[in-house]
Write a structure and sequence with these properties.
The complex is a heterodimer. By secondary structure, chain A is of the alpha/beta class. Chain A has ten helices and ten strands. Chain B is globular. The chains are: A alpha/beta, B alpha+beta.
């Protein structure tokens, strides 16, 4: 699986916020086998490198760090944070979030496209947190994004895939763009469902960090992602309305209507 | 706050086991410690958070509107469900520290402030270095976690115990300090930025207080506070020995709750150089589930 030319072995990506402690975070990441972890840069931390202790700890885990612009509500804020991230983490990758609504954390897709264009033109490899809207996705690709990350449901809601039809359409429209379901997953079956749709990876945070046993839940998600991907590759049968007998019915006394 | 059972929702189980005895400890040494329980509420749309909090904690009563009104009349009709932790307590940290200093003075212990002294250069057979985040020069794995709080004066709300309001973005607690004073806290940011509270944090805390009770909208802001909590990777305190220096640190956001246990460990280590410095049992089964 190639993201901006980088071969990723794991299809599970984890966020690093809200864990009970960095020690639990470390164990959860190991248990998940995640190859990419996201790290938030609040502006107040980034401007003075004040989050260095925590970021150093994350870097020491030996996984690829994907800085994000969580908490940014404007294009300017997101672009500034992305530049800080590039300097701090020495990476051109940025998970781009431009939040449009504080309560739902719904992305501001207009600002997102604008910020994606600015950052792509500036040499960033942008992974945008977006909705499943097809037109927005097209605009993001036009802006230079080579990975798309539609939400499953609002961040932290644990509702799973709210719009399976929309996510399936997105997959069909962009067969060659890596797609990651980002946000809204609550239990491993949600991740498996996303992978069965043919998504390339899932990204989650709260479902693991706020589980009763984050390490156990990280392991469960890893298994679900593996199972979902294997099921997708095995080409699942299509659902149908009528039963299909798995044993011969010829010779039975009668067949029902 | 001395809230070991509430803290169980998000912390290592050792916080509750080490912290529970602290309530009696403080009540013996600081009589103004108030053991009146604590209350946990959530807005109706965040009911799932209340259920989750209940799943992760213990020693509480799930109560309804009538009981909420009995406990905190000013919250009557605002909340219809809550969790009441009857055994928890709270105190005024500044007055409690002053009481400790007075108690030490009565026992002939000199307490000096404003002295510039390196622990390694201090005289004595044993030196206890408990400088908090300032000890980072000696404890490289110590990190700072920024916390911000607001003190307000509001005569239109009366609370008799700490109230936590669960919220997905800005969980907060309001602790009554008497005379209409309330402490509203506290942010927890993985940042070592030192300096005053940010506008964003202040707005979020005050917004949440307003949501808890609209009368806080008319409160007078008395103080904005910000500082760094010292923490190790597991967010649990540690005692380390380096020659004649004992380093006690990493209380994170549980200073008053875990300080008695940490002090006990330090005292044991002072008088018995062979004593184990481990604060917790290494194999608590729920450890990774914190």
């Amino acid at each position: 699986m190639l993201f901006y030319g980088v071969d990723l072995s794991s299809r599970l990506m984890l966020g690093t916020a809200r864990y009970p402690s960095p020690a639990v975070l470390t164990e959860a990441i190991k248990a998940s086998g995640a190859g990419v972890v996201t790290v938030s840069l609040r502006r107040e931390s980034g401007s003075e490198r004040a989050g260095q202790s925590f970021w150093s700890l994350v870097r020491s885990l030996g996984v690829r760090v994907l800085p994000n612009t969580a908490g940014c509500h404007s294009v300017k804020e997101a672009v500034t944070t992305a530049h800080m991230a590039r300097e701090l983490f020495d990476t051109t990758w940025i998970k781009l979030e431009v939040i449009g609504d504080s309560d739902t954390l719904q992305p501001d897709v207009f600002g997102l496209v604008e910020a994606a264009r600015i950052l792509s033109d500036d040499g960033f490899d942008v992974l945008p947190y977006t909705t499943e809207d097809l037109v927005v996705a097209e605009r993001l690709v036009e802006a230079g994004c080579r990975v798309l990350m539609p939400w499953g449901a609002p961040i932290g809601s644990a509702r799973g895939l709210n719009n399976v039809y929309g996510l399936r359409s997105l997959r069909a429209h962009f067969p060659d763009i890596p797609l990651v379901v980002d946000a809204g997953l609550g239990v491993p079956s949600h991740a498996a469902a996303a992978m069965e749709l043919g998504y390339d990876a899932v990204l989650l945070n709260t479902a693991v960090a706020e589980a009763g046993d984050p390490v156990g839940m990280a392991r469960a998600f890893a298994l679900a992602v593996e199972a979902g991907r294997a099921a997708f590759l095995a080409r699942p049968m299509e659902p149908r309305d009528m039963a299909v007998p798995s044993t011969p019915v010829i010779g039975k006394a009668a067949l029902g209507d | 706050m001395l809230a070991p059972w509430c803290e169980r929702a998000t912390t290592d189980p050792a916080v509750a086991s080490l912290g529970a005895p602290a309530i009696d400890w403080w009540m013996r040494r600081f009589p103004d410690t108030v053991r009146n329980g604590s209350l946990v509420v959530a807005q109706p749309r965040d009911a799932a958070d209340l259920a989750r909090f209940a799943q992760r904690t213990e020693r509480f009563e799930a109560i309804g509107a009538e009981r909420i009104a009995e406990l905190e009349p000013d919250l009557a009709s605002r909340y219809h469900r809550a969790l009441f932790f009857p055994d928890e307590a709270h105190l005024d940290p500044r007055r409690a520290l002053a009481a400790l200093v007075d108690g030490l003075a009565r026992q002939g212990v000199a307490v000096r402030f404003g002295i510039d002294l390196s622990p390694d250069a201090a005289p004595g057979d044993v030196v206890v270095d408990c400088r908090g985040f300032a000890a980072r020069d000696a404890l490289q794995d110590l990190r700072g976690v920024r916390g911000e709080m607001v003190m307000v004066r509001c005569l239109d709300v009366a609370l008799t115990r700490p109230v936590r309001m669960l919220h997905p973005r800005i969980p907060l607690y309001v602790v009554p300090r008497g005379d209409g004073l309330f402490m509203i806290g506290a942010t927890m940011i993985e940042s070592e930025r030192q300096g005053g509270a940010s506008v964003r944090s202040t707005v979020e805390l005050l917004n949440a207080a307003f949501a808890l009770h609209p009368a806080f909208g008319e409160a007078e802001v008395v103080e904005l506070g910000a500082d760094l909590r010292p923490a190790f990777a597991a967010n649990l305190p540690q005692v380390r020995r380096e020659g004649r220096v004992l380093r006690a640190n990493g209380l994170f956001r549980h200073g008053f709750l875990l300080a008695p246990a940490l002090a006990r460990k330090v005292a044991d280590a002072v008088f018995d150089p062979t004593v184990s410095l481990e604060m917790t049992d290494a194999d608590i089964p729920e450890r990774r589930c914190a």
